[in-house]
Specification:
By secondary structure, the protein is mostly beta strands. It has no helices and eleven strands.
Length: 124
């Protein structure tokens, strides 16, 4: 059974940093995409960042490019999201997600497994 557990959320002032971590268990995830999504109050869940394999280049949503950095460790089955220069609009519940590799599948959608989410609140 696949399980994803996020940690690292919290309250931070604008301009500050947070690091989110996601630990995946239940199988080997070396052939899975691993990524982060977020959902702000009253909005739909949106893609933040993801990567296919440990040697692949991560993909980032435009609002977080240059501020967020995704990294994964296949040996530990973890994927982290370093968030710098946080803005008020980054406030959301952040979800870790994984999906099995399929040729031609989009990296930014159609994930199979999701974590419970961790709250990130950026204050002024």
């Amino acid at each position: 059974q696949v399980q994803l557990v996020e940690s690292g959320g919290g309250l931070v002032q604008a301009g500050g940093s947070l690091r989110l971590s996601c630990a995946a268990s239940g199988r080997s995830f070396s052939s899975y995409a691993m990524g982060w999504f977020r959902q702000a109050p009253g909005k739909e869940r949106e893609f933040v960042a993801a990567v296919w394999g440990v040697d692949s280049t991560p993909d980032y949503a435009d609002p977080v490019k240059g501020r967020f950095t995704l990294s994964r460790d296949n040996a530990k089955n973890t994927v982290d999201l370093q968030m710098n220069s946080l803005k008020l609009e980054d406030t959301a519940v952040y979800y870790c997600a994984v999906k099995r590799y399929t040729f031609g599948a989009p990296l930014r959608s159609r994930y199979d497994y999701w974590g419970q989410g961790t709250q990130v609140t950026v204050s002024s």
